[in-house]
Design brief:
eight-stranded mixed sheet, globular, 149 residues, 3 helices
Length: 149
Amino acid sequence: MGQQSGNPSSIRHLKSPFSKVIATRYYDGPMEGFVAHNDWPHACLFQLVDWDRETDIRVYEVTRVEDFSFDEVVEALFRDRRPTWPVWVLPSGARERGQRLLAELTERTRPVATLTTRDLFGDILVWDAADDAPLSSGLILAAQSSGED
């Protein structure tokens, strides 16, 4: 994780653009599920791909579903009771439905980024944009205006 990035699509020390998480898997933190981006209505999916337990630094892959919103995920998963935010861990009765929806939507995603962080809502240590990442998040502009390298 100590790589120096010459990649202009890699941003360091960025405030998280995420506001809500629905975790389909959870162990000492969200491992997989859905995440709401502050600037996009789209459903975003996340998956933990690496975790340093000593420093609690986690690496997540984030993708976006272009034709399905985060609100639609909420509607599909929470029929009887509304979730509480910012993190909602699916109860055991809804986990299978959540896993099915995640698998279905995974086939329709667009890569967004690989991010390194201790907390999906805190400081993003490294945001490494995917080659085909959507440009609508404002992350590149935020990095340029704040003088990040």
